[in-house]
Write a structure and sequence with these properties.
Length: 348
């Protein structure tokens, strides 16, 4: 069917039907009476009556159906008052307008359905990952305790070692629960930001020093890029930004190479913000995985292969903290070259 045929209006239908009824009837009158004037009068009267009756019935029928369509479209989104409006008071609309409204509703509905499908998939993955993160330390603790109860408790060579290992797994569980609680509070806005002005380079140096003092056998060199050493003052929650930097540096160490490097850089962007970036020269992240690294518990394929411990919530916490400041965080990476994670903060 062509566009022209699909855009026929009720008036055109009424006009066509009136002509179909009027022309044969007027010809019949002319043939029976032999008077052209009477035939023309008959044609005019029947045409006008037919046109107005058919057009009125069509419009009433179509408007009733249109109101039902709008009631269906809006029934899950409107108040009682709005529902009454769409059912009884909706002003007449052309079929083209209705068609456009229905198409818009269908697109919006499909978008919502796609979002629900994505959320459902995310929920399944989250529960699966959560179960995995809890099972690992719990099974370890269970194994150590069972071994101790089976007789190893009386062996001084192993009992202390097993208790220490069980203690480390309990600490891991505690950290996991603490991180989950922090994310929940950040999402609900229950962790207020205590903002102050501070020099971002000084905080980065403190984080680097703490990281180097706690690093175990990983000789990665941390430094601030030379052209970025001029002090820049930001206005943010210092302790939460310290946590962000600590998580980023810890990640860079985990996925860094032996004798590698971690570099921090800071730049003024638009006169109102400062961009802070933490760059490593480690294993990198595959392009298809970059968009997901800020999800809770998400681990890259290489990360899972390395069996690196941790709650898997570090980058998710970073994202929530930066977004709580009204700022953005992003990542770029190349496999076997390195990763850069950057975020913005307001200038003091």
């Amino acid at each position: 069917m062509s566009n022209r045929e699909s855009n026929i209006t009720p008036r055109q239908i009424a006009l066509t039907a009136a002509l179909i009824l009027s022309i044969p009837e007027s010809l019949l009158v002319i043939w029976a009476s032999g008077k052209w004037a009477l035939g023309l009068l008959s044609f005019t009267a029947l045409f006008l009556i037919s046109y107005f009756v058919i057009n009125s019935l069509l419009e009433r029928f179509i408007n009733r159906k249109i109101k039902l369509i709008y009631k269906f479209i809006h029934k899950t989104k409107t108040t009682k008052k709005e529902e009454t409006y769409y059912k009884y008071i909706l002003p007449p609309k052309t079929l083209e307008e209705v068609s456009k409204d229905v198409e818009d509703w269908a697109i919006e509905n499909e978008t919502e359905m796609e979002l629900l499908r994505q959320n459902e998939q995310f929920r399944k993955e989250f529960l699966q990952n959560l179960s995995h993160e809890f099972k690992t330390p719990i099974f370890s603790i269970q194994g150590y305790i069972e071994t101790l109860l089976d007789g190893a408790l009386d062996d001084p060579k192993v009992n202390k070692k097993y208790l220490e290992n069980a203690g480390r797994n309990v600490e891991r569980l505690s950290n996991l629960l603490s991180d989950l609680e922090q994310i929940s509070k950040l999402e609900r806005g229950e962790l207020p930001l205590i903002k102050q002005s501070f020099i971002i380079q000084d905080l980065v140096r403190e984080v680097f020093e703490m990281s180097e003092s706690t690093a175990e056998g990983n000789s990665i060199h941390c430094s601030i890029k030379k052209e970025c050493e001029t002090p820049l003052i930001v206005f943010a929650d210092k302790e939460k930004i310290r946590q962000v930097l600590s998580n980023l540096v810890e990640n860079a160490r985990k996925y860094g190479k032996q004798n590698g490097s971690i570099t921090a850089s800071m730049y003024k962007t638009d006169g109102k913000h400062i961009l802070i970036e933490i760059t490593d020269d480690g294993i990198g992240i595959a392009e298809k995985e970059i968009s997901r690294i800020f999800e809770r518990f998400y681990r890259t394929e290489i990360g899972r292969a390395r069996d690196i411990t941790g709650s898997g919530l570090g980058l998710a916490i970073c994202k929530h903290i930066i977004e709580a400041h009204g700022e953005t965080i992003h990542a770029r990476s190349t496999e076997q070259v390195g990763t850069t994670i950057g975020f913005t903060l307001p200038i003091s």
